[in-house]
What does this fold into?
Amino acid sequence: MHDFLKRLPKAELHLHIEGSLEPELMFALAERNGVSLPYASVEEVRSAYDFTDLQSFLDLYFQGMSVLRTAEDFHDLAMDYFRRASDEGVVHVEMHVDPQAHLARGVELPVVMEGLSLARRRAQRELGMSTALIMAFLRDRPAEEAIAVMESAAPYWEMLDAVGLDSAERGNPPAKFVEVFERARQLGIARVAHAGEEGPPAYIREALDLLDVSRIDHGVRCLEDPDLVARLRDEGVVLTVCPLSNVRLRVVERMTDHPLPQLLDAGLRLTLNSDDPAYFGGGMLANFTACHEAFGWSKEIFIQLAETAIDAAFISEARRLELHRQLAACH
Ligand code: ADE
Ligand code: ZN
It folds into this structure.
C-alpha cells in the first residue's frame, strides 16, 4: 500500500507555504540573516511542537517565519517543499501565503512574490510540478488591513489563483471579510476560506453565503449540522481536509476518531492535504498513510480522493486532463 500511495499522483490543495518550513532550513536561514531563534537545536524546535489548540500552533508558526527576509529565502522555502513533495508523488501544489505576517515584520509584498514566483517556475521546469498561489488574509487582523493588502497586490492579481482566509478562527467569522472577498469576486479571482476547523458550522454557511467560496478548507465540524451536510453534498462543495493537522491541533483526539469516514459516508467531496507539514508530523504521503492505518481504506477510496483533488484544483483544463491520465495510468 505504501508504494501505491507514493505512486498515486496527488494534488495538494491546502498547504501553507510558511508551514512547510522545516527546522533545518529555519536554522540555516536564521544564520544567513543573523536572526536569533529561541532554540538551541533542531531537536529542541521539534520538541516544542506540542500544541494544545490552533492558537498555540499559530504562535510558533509566526515566530518560525521570522527567519524569512529576502526573496531568496522565500524561493528556498518553496523549493525545499516542492522537492520533498515531488519525492512523495505530489504533482500539483496549491499554496496559501500570508502576506500580512510578512508585512508586519517589514518584509514587503514584492519580496515574497518574487521569491515564490521564481520557485514556481523552477518547480515546473525541474520537477514537472504545477503550482497555484492563494493569497490568504489573517482573519484575526482588521478587515481594513485585508482590503489594503488586496489593493496593494494589484501588480500580482494576475498571479493569484484565489484568495483565502486563515489564522485564528473562533470569534473571527467570515462575515468580517465580505468586502475584500467581494473585491476578489469582481476581479475574477476565486475564493476559498478556512471554516469549521475550530469554528462552528455557522462559519461554513457564512463562507458559502457571504464569501461565495468554491472550496472550504477543513470544514470537518459540518457534521454537527445535518442540514449543512446535506447542502454541502447537494452543491458538491469540496472540503480540503487535513487529518494529521486535526490530530496535532486537537480538533480530534486521535486519527481513529477522525470524522473522515463519516464525511465520506455522507457523500461529501473530500481531499487530503498536509496544511503545515513541518509542524504536524509529515506531508501528503504521511497523511495518506495515516488514513490507511486508521481506517483501512482501499485503493479505490484513495483514487477517489486523488480524483476529487484534480477536479477541484485551480489548473487549466489541459493540465486537468493530463493529471487524470496520470491517475488512470497508476492503477
Ligand atoms: N494558518 C496556518 N495553518 C492554519 C490552520 N490550520 N488553520 C488556520 N490558520 C492557519
Ligand atoms: Zn490551513
